[in-house]
Specification:
Helix content: 55-70%
Mean pLDDT: 90
Number of helices: 4
Oligomer: single chain
Length: 77
């Protein structure tokens, strides 16, 4: 957590660009669970413009296909 803060704080203080990707919802970033997260999230929100990308979760689809294939193998066994 401290390493993440150091990287983000360094970019923040130098006013250099920062691109952050996360699976967190914007509400989770705006309402951090503790002070350590708040320190990081505040800096991110001040420097970054949130953009939501929505769509299919390809890993989830792949997992379903793998599970179905495994069931088929087990049922034949």
């Amino acid at each position: 957590m401290e390493q993440m803060f150091t990287v983000i704080d360094s970019r923040y203080r130098s006013k250099k660009p920062l691109i952050v990707t996360t699976n967190l919802k914007l509400e989770e970033i705006k309402n951090p669970p503790d002070l350590a997260h708040a320190r990081i999230y505040d800096r991110i929100l001040e420097r970054c413009a949130p953009i939501l990308f929505s769509g299919k979760n390809f890993r989830e689809e792949g997992a379903r296909a793998t599970k179905a294939a495994a069931k088929e193998i087990v049922s034949k066994g």
